[in-house]
Amino acid sequence: MEKILPILICAVAVLVILILVMMFLLARFVLNGNRQTLAEAKKWQAEHYDIKFYDKLEKHEYIVRSFDGYKLHVQICQNPVKTGRYVIISHGYTDNRYGDLKYVKMYLELGYNCIIYDLRGHGVNARHICTYSVLEAKDLMQIIEDTRNRYVVSTLGLHGESLGGAASIACLQYQPNIDWVVDDCGFADLENVLRRGYASAHLPAGITLFLTRAGMKLFYGKNLGDMAPIKSVENANVPVLFIHGADDDFVPPENSERMYSLIEDRAQLKIIEGAGHAESVLNEPVRYEKFVRAFLSGV
Fold first, then answer.
1. How, if at all, do strands 71-78 and 58-65 pair?
2. Cβ distance 268 to 244 under 8 Å?
3. What is the layout of strands, in order, in the sheet containing 58-65?
4. What are the residues whose beta carbons fall under 8 Å from the beta carbon of 187, sequence distance 6 or more?
5. How far apart are the first and last CA of the chain?
6. Which DSSP helix (H) or strand (E) runs through 182?
7. How far apart are CA 85 and CA 83, in angstroms?
8. Closest CA relative to residue 266, chosen from 172, 185, 190, 174
9. In sequence order, what are the beta bridge partners of 273?
10. Model confidence over 28-52: pLDDT tens digits?
C-alpha cells in the first residue's frame, strides 16, 4: 500500500494537469482564433465580388476609444450624395473592416454613409480575446455615441454579420440611440454554436463544452453564458431585420428564428435559400437589397 499510494498521487496529479491543459487549450482556441490581415481580407473580397467602387469613395480614418480606453480603428465611407443617414457595419469573427464591403455598396445606393471598423482584437487593433458580443457590444455603443457627436445624423442604423450581428443585438441592452438593426446570421448564444461544432468534429460535445466553459472562467475570467445576445433582444425598442442563410451549418438559421420569435411585433425574418454562413448577400444580392430596402422604407 505504501508503494501504491505515491503512484496514485502521481497519477491523479498528471490527470489534473492534463485536464487543466485541455481547459486552457480549448478556451484559447475559442477566444483567440487566427484573424485576417487587412490585405488578406481585401484580397478575399476582391476575388468574390467587385470592390472597385471602394477605391473611388471619399474615406477618412480615425480612432474611437472604447469604455476601457481600447483603441478601435474606424473608417467612414462617405456617400457621394450629401446625406444625414448613417449605418455602422460590424464584421464577423476573424474578419475585419474589409469584410463589410459586401454591404457598403448597397447602403451607399440606399442613401447612407457607411462607418466600418475593426472589431476588438481584429484588423489593425491591438490583440485582444474575442468575447463574442460582451465587450464588442460596449465597443459598438462607443462608436454609436462617437458617430452622433462627430456627424450631423438624421438616421442611424446598425448592420452586423455573424459576430457583428451578435454585437449589434447585444448592445440593445444599453438602449442605444439608433433607429434600426439588421442582423445577418448572428448567433443567439455561443454555446449552441460550440456544441454543434464539437459534435461535427466528432468530439464528446458535453464534456468538451464543460472543459471550454471552465477554461474560459479559470484562465480568462469570462463566462460562456454571458455570450448570448438573445438575452438582450427583448430590449429592442427599434425595428430589427433578421437575415439568415437557409444552408448555414455554422450558425444555423434557428438562431435568428429563436430571437425573432421573442420580438415578432417589431421584427422581420428573411431566410435566403441556398446560402451558407455569411453568404446571403453574395448569393442573392438583388433579393438581399430588396429585403433591406423594404425594411428601411417601413422604419
1. antiparallel
2. no
3. 58-65, 71-78, 113-117, 85-90, 155-161, 180-184, 240-245, 267-272
4. 132, 162, 165, 166, 193, 229, 251, 255
5. 77
6. strand 180-184
7. 5
8. 172
9. none
10. 999 998 899 999 999 999 999 999 9
Structural contact between residues 53 and 111, judged by C-beta atoms closer than 8 angstroms: no
Quote the cell numbers at residue 270. 428573411
CB 43 within 8 A of CB 35: no
H or E element at residue 11: helix 4-31
State the DSSP H helix or E strand holding residue 199, giving kind and residue range, or none if neither: helix 190-200
- C-alpha–C-alpha distance, residues 39 and 147, integer Å: 26
Q: 126 with 146: CB under 8 angstroms?
A: no
Using the structure block, give the residue that is written with the C-alpha cell 456544441. 195
Please spell the DSSP secondary structure of 71-117, one letter per residue. EEEEEEEE-SS--SEEEEEE--TT--GGGGHHHHHHHHHTT-EEEEE
Distance CA 257, CA 101 (A): 26
- What is the DSSP-derived secondary structure letter of residue 127? P
Which amino acid is located at 270 in the chain? Answer: K
- The position carrying cell 473592416 is 97
Read off the pLDDT band of 155 (50, 70, 90). very high
Full set of structural domains in the chain with CATH: 32-189+227-297 (3.40.50.1820)
Q: 178-222, pLDDT tens digit by residue?
A: 999 999 999 999 999 999 999 999 999 999 999 999 999 999 999
Location of C-alpha cell 445577418: 184
